[in-house]
Amino acid sequence: MTATTAPYRSELPAGRDGFGQLLHAEWTKFRTVRGWVITAVAAAILIVLFAYLGTFRHQNGGICVGANPSSGTCQSFGHPTPPVGPGGEAVTDTYYFVHRTLAGDGTVTVRVSSLSGRTQAGNGNAASVNDLGGAPAPVQPWAKAGLILTASARPGAAYAAVMLTGAHGVRMQYDYTHDTAGPAVSVHSPRWLRLTRSGSTLTGYASADGVRWTTVGSARLAGLPQIVQAGLFVTSPQTAPAPSALVPGSTSKATGATATFDQLGLQGGWSPGGWSARNVGDTGLLPTLTSVGYHRSGSGFTVTGSGDIAPAVGQDGGYTDETALTGVFVGLIVLIVLGAMFITAEYRRGLIHTTLTASPRRGRVLIAKAVVIAAVAFVVAAAAAAISIPLGNHLLRSNGNYVYPTSTLTELRVILGTGALVALTAVLALALGTALRRAAGAVTAVIVLILLPYILAIYSALPVGASQWLMRLTPAAGFAIEQTLPQYHQVAYLYAPSEGFYPLAPGVGLAVLGAYTLVALLVAHHLLGTRDA
Amino acid sequence: MSRALHAEWTKQRTVAGTGWLLLGAITLTVALSVLVTVATTYASSGAGQDITKLSLTGIYLGQAIVVILAVLTISGEYSTGMIRITLTAIPRRPRVMASKAAILTALVLAAGTIAVLGSVLAGRLILPANGFTVAHHYALLSLGHGPTLRAAAGSVLYLVLIALLSLGIATAVRDSATAIGIVLGLLYLFPILAALATDPHLKRHLQQIAPMTAGLAIQATTNLRSLPISPWAGLAVLAAWAAAALLAGGLLLRLRDA
Predict the structure, then answer these.
(1) Which SS3 state, helix, strand or coil, does residue B142 take?
(2) Which of chain A's residues have a Cβ under 8 Å away from the Cβ of B188?
(3) Tens-place pLDDT, residues B162-192
(4) How far away is chain B from the Cα of A112, in angstroms, using its nearest Cα?
(5) In a 10 Å sphere around its CB, with 0-12 CB exposed, 13-18 middle and 19+ buried, how is residue B16 labelled?
(6) Distance between CA atoms of A405 and B229, rounded to whole angstroms?
(7) Which residue of A lies nearest to B185 if distances are taken between CA atoms?
(8) Chain A residues inside the 8 Å CB shell of B39
(9) Phi-psi map region of A109: left, alpha, beta (phi>0 left; psi -120 to 50 alpha)
């Protein structure tokens, strides 16, 4: 007789192995390594610390406010505040305006028979009063001359304008950021322009002969008052800085434009009496020529203006939210190291054997690790950015600097985007760490992939075109998520990575980084599943 | 000492990684230099371009591989436990450190020379086709030209000093990931912080003390007056960083248990 004994069964209930348990296990692994938690917290503190260090003592008038004629040097005052347009964005609003009051609906028609340019003399660095009279020069591509209808002559007011430009044909523009192209036309041939108000709708027309008219564009200006100012305007923006800091005297120069208007015709509720004239919004914010003015010539006017009616893109030395985010680069490196070590430490200590025994579905282990490190990185970076931006902006402003206003939505995008940028980079490090199983290679690869293109783009003597391709094709494209000032084709400026302008839209740039992370994760998933641990 | 050197040489020689890393450093340096010289034309960048510096841009990338090699020289021993055998065999720890530094210097000197010569050759062959010709006041890149020779030889020395800096830091922190994070942070973060610094004086100071920007001042051949620091002084700054790191690493190696 043989006695049968029941095989041993553990009294303990079977462990559950859902994804939730796995996440919990990975979070416990992270949480219980004291060095990692301290490092993650230190990363957040470093980001905020650099925001503080970069801004707390800094004082910059930003621009040359009022040149000193005797010494030729700039006197630096507190930074003047640019006007804010109807959309809440900082704008440039400086032009010479020959205007009348219009009550209700009406139409103004004019012929622009010539447009010529002037440019500041000297090297543009140390402007003297003589230089700012300007000397005849080719007209600027975005010099503007035409008809404008504005809620008031206060800078930043709502407006719509139809104009002849130096090199971009006839345009209809309104409320600073909107620009519609009309027919292309030479500066030298006469061009008829017409601007009509009907309620809150303004329509711009152009014609080559004053007989056959084509619509250039129309604008609805909500809240436009019954009584508005309308008439002729001329302005001409400063030159764009040269694309290379190597070239001495590459600063912007003030320019002006002179337009001859004739065949002026009015219909509708125009005020009786004559025309008045004024130089609108010359706050000294951007370099402008002093030789502006107007005089009657026959049936029309000859008007000279200097400045621009356009969104501000950083020409005036103001700061943006990105100034306070310098520390993100420091936090990025810390989280790259953490992300790589989160898996390579397991290989080094042999813990990976336990991990894969407890959870044989290896893909899920990788995903759980990615979720945990991404969450840590996101919280660290987003929280630090949420503190850094208001702190940095407050310190800059309290020292008399100008910081561009940003909408709450943009600010939210920058804060969450910074979190996502750092999270995606940390996961990239985790994935490369899984694939290489060595921290050294993974950390180096990720730091080089994301920081080196950025350094080469902003710091080396690479031409702008090459810099832009670096910021399109490499993981460094993700930094585009931090750009707050949009790029405008109707403002000539150096839109280079070194000036904070990225070639890709914020979301697209982040998606490029995301694509790198995704591919690395897929490769890591494949290698983890097919190799012995 | 010669035995210690021989031991270190055997270790480096018999690890597969060393060869690959040196090859990688050479390849990546030359590859980036070629890419940058191909991308830069006279038409797009105009006058005032420092073509020697441009041809040596690859050092920015090649140094990262040198950092890996240098860090693994010591932290590889810590991760495998080999360090205990090494220190049992050669109990005089400064001697271990010195022989590691010597072998590393020799390896990086050799690989760096090939990488730099490759980059200069690439610049010599590619740049004239991009419009950097005598007609535009650009001489053919040549090591016979004093400043160019200084830039090329200095770039090799730069790589050696980067390797020694990495060795010192890795000896101090022992863990490879942390050491590489610190070294690459020191190299790459300074120029970014300097570029983003709002204050011009702070910017200049950052460029003067940063190991990479100061060290790479050795590559400049034109417009030397506008540099934040003169070429040899810049290399001396990097040498000071490397010396400080080696000293700190050596002291910690001597004082701590392995």
Answers:
(1) coil
(2) 333, 447, 451-452, 455
(3) 999 999 999 999 999 999 999 999 999 988 8
(4) 36
(5) exposed
(6) 37
(7) A333
(8) 462-463, 465-466, 469
(9) beta
Amino acid letter, A11: E
Question: What pTM was estimated for this model as a whole?
Answer: 0.87
The three-class DSSP label of residue B199 is: coil
Q: Nearest chain A Cα to B47, which residue?
A: A247
What torsion do the CA atoms of A51, A56, A59, A60 make, to the nearest 10 degrees?
10
Q: Closest-CA residue in chain B for A401?
A: B198
Give the model's pLDDT for residue A249. Answer: 44
Task: Tell me if A476 sits within 8 A of A456, measured CB to CB.
Answer: no
Does position A325 have pLDDT exceeding 50, yes or no? Answer: yes
Mutate to test the interface with A, among B196, B207, B225, B226 (most CBs of A within 10 A): B196
Nearest-CA distance B49 → chain A (Å):
8
Write the pLDDT tens digit of every residue in A123-171: 655 555 567 778 888 899 999 999 999 998 888 999 999 999 988 989 9
Mean pLDDT computed over A288-302: 86
Tokens coding A443: 């950390």
Asked whether the beta carbons of residue B48 and residue A247 sit closer than 8 angstroms, the reply is yes
d(CA A214, nearest CA chain B) in Å: 39
Residue type, A165: T
Q: Where are the beta strands (DSSP E) in A120-251?
A: 135-137, 144-150, 159-165, 170-174, 178-181, 191-198, 201-207, 214-220, 227-235
What are the structure tokens assigned to B223, written together? 């417009």
Structure tokens at B49: 């371009």
Question: Strand, helix or coil at A243?
Answer: coil
- Which amino acid belongs to residue A72? G
**Among B44, B57, B199, whose Cβ lies nearest the Cβ of A58?**
B199
Residue A499 has pLDDT above 70, yes or no: yes
Distance CA B24, CA A453 (A): 18
Q: How many CA atoms lie within 13 A of A114 on its CB side?
A: 11
CATH code of A91-311, in short, is 2.60.120.200
Counting one residue from chain A and one from chain B, the pairs whose CB atoms sit within 8 A come to 133
Q: What is the pLDDT of residues B116-126, one digit of tens each?
A: 999 999 999 99
Could you give the 3-state DSSP secondary structure of residue A263? strand
Contact B59, B219 (CB under 8 A): yes
Strand ranges for A52-187 from DSSP E: 91-93, 95-119, 135-137, 144-150, 159-165, 170-174, 178-181
* Contact yes or no for B36 and A336 at CB 8 A: no
Which of A59, A443, A460 is the mutation pick for testing B, counting most B CBs within 10 A?
A443
A63 pLDDT band, cuts 50/70/90, is very low
Closest CA to A177 of A239, A281, A53, A92: A92
Look at B192 and A459 and tell me if their CB atoms are within 8 Å.
yes
Give the closest of A337, A444, A452 to B60, CB-based. Answer: A452
State how far the Cα of A180 lies from the Cα of B192, in Å rounded to an integer: 38
A470 to A465, A477, A478, A515: CA distances (angstroms):
9, 8, 11, 16
Residues in A closer than 8 angstroms to B220, CB to CB, are none
Give the pLDDT confidence score for residue A62 in this predicted structure. 43
Considering only CB atoms, which residues of chain B are within 8 Å of chain A? 36, 39-41, 44-50, 53-54, 57, 60-61, 64-65, 67-68, 71-72, 75, 79, 175-178, 180-181, 184-185, 188-189, 191-193, 195-199, 223
* Residues of chain A with C-beta less than 8 angstroms from the C-beta of B185: 330, 333, 447
Q: Which residues are registered as beta bridge partners of A191?
A: A112
How would DSSP label each residue in A390-417? HHHHHHHHHTT--B----HHHHHHHHHH
Distance CA A233, CA A250 (A): 29
Q: Do A451 and B184 touch (CB under 8 A)?
A: yes
Segments making up each domain of chain A, as ranges: 27-57+319-530, 91-311
Q: How far is A509 from A477, CA to CA, in rounded Å? A: 5
